[in-house]
Specification:
Elements lengths: L2 H26 L3 E3 L17 E4 L12 E5 L6 E8 L3 H15 L5 E4 L8 E14 L6 E13 L4 E14 L4 H26 L6
Parallel strand pairs: 1-4, 2-5, 2-6, 3-6
Antiparallel strand pairs: 3-4, 6-7, 7-8
Length: 208
């Protein structure tokens, strides 16, 4: 093999190796993690029931079965922010927030999660269909959209006590990660307050 050809091949291999290492280092860079909080001013019961409530993990489409923060540049296109992620997978994070919010209502003797929480007197089964930032058509800002359909079920006979869909939307000025996360926080807290109030009202529990 001519020396010039060998030199070119070695140089090409070296550059390819550098590119691979660079890509590996880039993919290995840890993303900033964000964790949403339960609303501080959710409904609180005047008196507690002696019953137990278990919260199922919300079902969700495949695009939400991840810890990545989803943004839709177009209605049928799903992408994820490149510099941030949720602290846990989206359905698990929502389940935790629902548990905390309803626990804070002091309406039940016990609020747990399935599968860890076992069975209770009532179960809250839900489907998370929207949990994304939707980019504005002009590229300026976005709307955070949250949509959850919940069913409150009596465990003894699997009868449905009540069904309701909760929608929340919150505009943000930019698609910067911190602005998007703060928008998710605001929209999610609205949804959680409405959800908790509905659970209490469905079981005849009056809030303060």
């Amino acid at each position: 093999m001519p020396r010039l050809t060998l030199t070119v091949l070695l140089a090409s291999a070296f550059l390819s190796g550098c590119s691979a290492i660079s890509a590996l280092n880039s993919s290995a860079t840890p993303l900033e993690s964000y964790d949403l909080q339960a609303p501080p001013e959710a409904p609180v019961a005047r008196s507690s029931l002696t019953r137990q409530l278990v919260i199922e993990v919300p079902s969700a489409p495949g695009t939400l079965m991840t810890d990545r923060i989803m943004i839709r540049p177009r209605p049928l296109q799903a992408q994820y922010l490149t510099d941030g992620q949720w602290a846990s997978e989206t359905p698990l994070m929502i389940q935790t927030l629902i548990v905390r919010t309803i626990e804070d209502s002091n309406a039940f003797r016990y609020v747990g999660r399935r599968p860890l929480g076992g069975s209770g007197d009532y179960a809250l089964i839900s489907e998370l269909t929207d949990f994304q930032a939707e980019a504005a058509p002009d590229g300026k800002g976005a709307t955070i959209r949250v949509r959850l359909t919940a069913r409150l079920v009596q465990e003894s006979d699997a009868s449905v006590i009540s069904v309701r869909t909760f929608n929340a939307a919150f505009p943000v000025d930019t698609t910067d990660t911190i602005d998007v996360v703060e928008g998710f926080s605001s929209a999610t807290q609205v949804m959680l307050k409405d959800l908790s109030g509905w659970v209490l009202a469905s079981l005849g529990v009056k809030a303060r």
